Amino acid sequence: MKKILPLFSLILLISFFTTAQTCINPTGGTINGDVNGCVDRVGTYTVTGVSNATTYNWVIIGAAASKVNDTQYSIVFSNPGTVTITVTPINQTNGPCSGTPITKTITVSNTPNRPIITQTGATLSTSAGAASYQWYVGSTLITSATSQTYAPTQNGQYRVEIKNGASCNIFSDPFNYTVTAIKEDQKFDNFSFYPNPVMTTIHVNFVKKFDIEFYNLNGQKVLQKANLQGEQEIDMSNLNKGIYIMRIKSEGKYAARKIILQ
Questions:
Q1: Considering only CA atoms, which of 211, 193, 206 is closest in space to residue 260?
Q2: Radius of gyration for the alpha carbons in the chain, expressed in angstroms and rounded
Q3: pTM for the full model?
Q4: What's domain 24-109's architecture?
């Protein structure tokens, strides 16, 4: 019996070291998610591509975070600055064994102030200073309506989306626009134009000084003439055939006419 016990202990010792050597360190892996964040927004970050990991140890510095599951966290960006994520993959089988920590740094920027839409005559505008603008009617994006101002061609609820240099975006509140609600100044009773439909050239005539602009049905300005007076001839031959809105401005007042170019 005394000979058996030392032999049994030796077997246990060999088994212990053999088992300890089977622990495999996790390898590889990335943290997927945006490298830029915006204040008052939530970002989701996921660990993928790790081999031999059974769990993960997350350390997030600079923002509040909430666990979605073992490989994913949601982060609430409350302040501008830097957020650092460090994830250490762990293999608990015959371990634990740790892999190389994976890190990701996020730059958080302020979200722009909500833009306000104002109306001047037949034109909608919003505050200046944004890196980009995009106008919508309802939930539909208006192609090519990417300026600070937009001239609607139909009734509807309009919104503008602005972005800053960090691509943080925000939408305005809806603005109700009614074409027929714009009361035209009586001075434009003397404004005249011909022909309509237009083949290549339109003739306009107004006794006062005026500016004139042409918009397509996407609200994109395609032609303009400034500081006009009296009878004028405007060449439209470079424009595509279709329907246009001709907007006349004189002494801070506006009028609009629909033009068909054949």
A1: 193
A2: 33
A3: 0.60
A4: Sandwich (2.60)
In the CATH scheme, what architecture does the domain 183-261 have? Sandwich (2.60)
62 sits in the region (left: phi over 0; alpha: psi -120 to 50; else beta) called left
- For 98, residues 6+ apart whose C-beta sits below 8 A from its C-beta are 25, 26, 88, 89, 90, 91
- Return the bridge partners of 36, or none: 107
Q: Which residues have C-beta within 8 Å of that of residue 110, sequence separation ≥ 6? A: 38, 39, 80, 164, 168
Which residue ranges does the chain devote to CATH 2.60.40.10?
24-109
CA–CA separation, 249 and 226 (whole Å): 9
CB 82 within 8 A of CB 118: no
Token pair of 203, please?
């003739």
With beta carbons less than 8 A apart as the criterion, state whether 151 and 144 touch. no
What are the start and end residues of each CATH 2.60.40.3080 domain in the chain?
A: 183-261
Q: Are 261 and 198 in contact (CB under 8 A)?
A: yes
Q: Give the model confidence (pLDDT) of 78-131 as tens digits.
A: 999 999 999 999 999 877 899 999 999 999 999 999 998 887 777 888 988 899
Q: Are 85 and 72 in contact (CB under 8 A)?
A: no
* Amino acid in position 23: C
Q: Hey, how many other C-beta atoms are within 10 angstroms of the C-beta on 140?
A: 9
